[in-house]
Every structure is written in structure tokens, then in C-alpha cells.
Amino acid sequence: MNRTSLLQIVTFACSLFVFSRVSASAQAQEHIIVSGGPALRRWEDLRATGLQHDRWWGNFIAPASNRIRDLRHKQPGLTITWLVYRDAYERRTAEDGKPYVQWIQEKEAKFGIKIVWFRTGDDVIRYINSGKSRGRTKISGFEYYGHSNKYCFMFDYSSDIYGVSSSWLHQADLKKIRSGAFAKGAYCQSWGCHTAEAMSAVWKKATGVPMIGAKGKTDYSNMHLRNWTVGLSPGSHWVRG
What is the CATH number of the domain that holds 179? Predict the structure, then answer.
């Protein structure tokens, strides 16, 4: 083999290496937002005034919309998918006589995103695993807005049954998430209550990436005074799991 041939081989090998590095760095990414649903007001009316919460239909829609708007501003080309628990909004539509499902669907074109309606925790895991080819499109972000306790996301609470959740994603089910679905360094946060007290650790074990969550309760009241962001109740704090 002469010197010219050897140089050509080395140059070709280097070009393949550079191409592979560029391809990896340019890999498509997706940010997933998940919104649970509101309670029915007829159930909340059974509570004492000081114990009522989640009366506004948009508690888990407004802050998610604000976050999507912020992501779109910072990363115009980012693929954003919004998973929304449909049943609760259909129930509130029937109760209030307002087209909540339609209003949410209209945000798809407004923000240039895709809305995926879901009904179960398995639907959410199914989307994480195969909503897109995870070999080509990694999840760079995952955020949850809704009710939760330290063991699970509760997609409804006092929507179907008073004081009960009938749709959820439990930490025991996180083991169903496929390895490699998330990008290294993905940003994950639960904006629900108590997630950092148990579920965050299980999330990290299942996905390989940490989840920021609250120790204590989060606060969805008066969000208009905080630029439509979720707050913390007194004594609560955020923890990176």
C-alpha cells in the first residue's frame, strides 16, 4: 500500500468519525408536556369552603400553555408534544356548557405542537416508548401538571368519583419505560404535589435521568400573579431527584 492510498483511507475514516459525531449531536429531540384534568365543581361544592381547590377548569392547562410558549420562544424548532387527559375536560364541558376540549385542541395550531389525548397511565408510557422512534428522536424534556401524591401522578381527582382518582400513573409502572427513550441530561419535572418524596427516585432508576419534584404541596392558586407558573405551599421546596 503506497502512501497516497494510506492517506486516503485515513481521511475517509476521519470523515466517517466526524459525520457520526455530527449526526449524534444533531439527533432529533422531543419535549413532552403532560396535563391532568380538573375536578367537577359539583364534587368540590361538597367540601367546606376552606378545603375547596381545583375549581378552575384551566388549572393544569394555563401553566402548561405558558411553558410551551416559553419553550417555543427559546427553541423555535423543538418538537413539542402535549399529552392531555381528555375525560376530565369532557366532563367539565358537560358540566359548564363550555367547549374546553375544543379550546385545548385549538392550541395545537396556535403553538405549532402536537396534542395527544390520553385516558390511562399506560397510554402515557406507550407514548414515551413509541410515540416516535426513540432510536432517532430522544426525549429531551418531560413535565407533568396535575394532581399527584408521593407514589403516582393522578390524572383526575374528584372528576369521575368524589375524592377518588380513576386514572393514574403509579411509580410501580415506570419499569415499563424502555431504556434509552430519554436523552442524556433530559430535563424532567413534576409540578404536582409530593413527587420528590418517593416517585422521583423511582423515575430516575427507570429512565436514567433525574426528576425535579416537590417535597410538600405545590400551589396552583393565583398563578396570574406569578406569570402563570406553579408555586409552592408554605414549608414545601423543590428537590432534584
Answer: 3.40.50
* pLDDT tens digits, one per residue of 99-108: 999 999 999 9
For residue 173 the three cell numbers come to 409502572
Q: Is residue 10 part of a domain?
A: no
Residues 165-216 have pLDDT tens digits of 889 999 999 999 998 999 999 999 999 999 999 999 999 999 999 999 999 9
What torsion do the CA atoms of 85, 89, 92, 98 make, to the nearest 10 degrees?
170
Residue 81 lies in a domain: yes
For residue 12, is it within any domain? no
Q: How far from 89 is each of 73, 80, 106, 108, 160, CA to CA, in Å? A: 27, 21, 14, 16, 11
Amino acid at site 188: C
- In the numeric block, the cell 414545601 is attached to 236
- Distance in angstroms (rounded) separating the CA atoms of residues 18 and 227: 43
